[in-house]
Amino acid sequence: MNVIARRILPPVLLGIVVLAAWQILVTALAIPQIVLPSPAAILAETLAYIPVLFSAALVTGWNALVGLVVGSLLGIGFALVAASIRVFDELTTPLVAALAVIPIVALAPVLYTMYGADVQSARQAVAGISVFVPVFLNTLRGLRQTRPVHRDLMRAYAATRWQAMRTVTLPTARPFIFTGLRIASSLSVIAALVAEYFGGPRGGLGTFITASVAGSDYARAWSYVLASIVLGLLFYLAALAVETLAVRHRPA
Amino acid sequence: MSTIETTAPPERAGAGAPAVAVTGLDKTFTTSDGPTQALKGIDLEVAAGEFVSLIGPSGCGKSTLLRIIADLERPTTGEVRVFGTSAPQARLDQAYGIAFQQAGLLGWRTVAANVELPLELHGVGRAARRARSTELLELVGLSDFAARFPDQLSGGMQQRVAIARALAERPRLLLMDEPFGALDEMTRERMQTELARISAETGAAVVFVTHSISEAAFLSDRVVVMSPRPGRITTTVTTGLGPVGERTDALREDPRFFEAVTAVREGLHAGSAGVAGTGGGSGGTGAAT
Q1: Ranges for the ABC transporter domain (chain B) (predicted)?
Q2: Distance in Å, alpha carbon of B269 to nearest chain A alpha carbon
């Protein structure tokens, strides 16, 4: 009760105030729709197009999810190898640094020609690559946090590499891995969505945003943006929920 | 390779051998400024069941010596035998239990699960593990905290958990590297009294690194005094305070305790004075190469 009053109510109130101000401003100043549609207009479009929004979110969400899962698995896997094999680490560090500075979505057109323009794989690949970097870097950092006293203990216990990994190294890295996944979760949605701006099959939120803008349907474009925000939020919350479940047994 | 007998039988091969036998040990670290000699010409024997402290100023190599006995470091030259076997073999056999200045508990495991960690790594069944951790937590007076997490415990309690963990496999040798170094004086004295009792109850030999004179005198049968650059043993003080297990807080006000403290202190000062005075003379002990 108290939590709701103190932590949830204020932002909700603020949101309502902002929306009301927006609505009053747009009506009072007679701002044309091309500049800024009113919240009421956006809401009307959203309600009218719910089935379309839902199916578009499903397309983009699926691409993001595939990218997130594959990119994260690769990121964690490569980090494990890099943490245990020094040469591999030295080889990959510059590559990952290069990967981190490439605007991945800029690769989308190139990937479309590679995969063919009528499949979703290019978008999934874009999402996957952009997820890979934060997951890899955070996991690698986490794997290097093992405290010397724990390393000494594992040696004193004559623990095997695998035992040391399972009992000390991975649990120590866990918060770092989840930080990477949390960053990656919203990143995957953004990447999958923006990749749609560069062509490829229609059906996702990104293609509908560009199509609505091209058709001067600004309120509808905003309703797709709204759906994108909800989708990104869902991914973020899902990552947060998984993290909370996984580290539940550890006091803060 | 690392399948280990988990309940050490009281008598086994090498039972007659001393707990620790170090002969002619040198240790040189290679640093960016060139080689640094950490230990020089160390000879040390610890009998089974004996409590021996290593004391000396920072940088005298006492922790390094302990780590070499534990096979966490390798000696440059010289030999280390633990119950008659080589140090690496003793480590694989889990011949010793170890505790460090940092308790080094795993924060994501309960207190009981931390105590059970070595048993778990060596394949002891769940029921046997639980029985042993219950027993050990009782020994260190933490039975009520089995289900807590380390963060919920004070520093002294965490260190007691670490000691329980070191005792999990009934080692006949305990290696302790300043285990009470980070504790306040009150807690420290209580822990010392408890360790005296525990070491007597388990009958394990203890090699105890400290830089507290009173701690060394209170706990030990013998105090080995070391001096730095290069680390070497200057004197050995036999405290003569009776069986370690019978040492209680009353001993802290006993004149014999003050005598032992004085003897250790004088040994330490003679050792550090000797750095200037007999610097050249100590070369004679480095013949182990």
Answers
A1: 20-253
A2: 31
Full residue range of the structural domain in which residue A74 is found: 49-246
Does B106 lie at the interface with A, CB-CB under 8 angstroms? Answer: yes
Candidate from B1, B98, B108 with C-beta closest to A250:
B108
Provide the CATH number for the domain formed by B20-95+172-285 in this structure. 3.40.50.300
- With vertex at residue A26, the alpha carbon angle to CA A20 and CA A32, rounded to the nearest 5 degrees, is 155
Q: What ipTM was assigned to the predicted interfaces of this complex?
A: 0.79
C-beta atoms of A153 and B102 within 8 A: no
The verdict on B182 touching A (C-beta cutoff 8 Å) is no
Q: Does B72 touch chain A (CB under 8 A)?
A: yes
Domain ranges of chain B: 20-95+172-285, 104-170
With CA atoms as reference, the chain B residue closest to A250 would be B108
- List pLDDT tens digits, range A140-177: 999 988 889 999 999 888 888 888 888 899 889 998 99
Kindly give the interhelix angle for B155-166 and B185-202, rounded to the nearest 10 degrees.
20
- Please answer whether residues B76 and B27 qualify as being in contact, where contact means their C-beta atoms are separated by less than 8 angstroms: yes
Residue B269 structure tokens: 């000062």
Same domain, A57 and A15: no
pTM (2 d.p.): 0.76
Verify that A4 and A106 share a domain, yes or no.
no
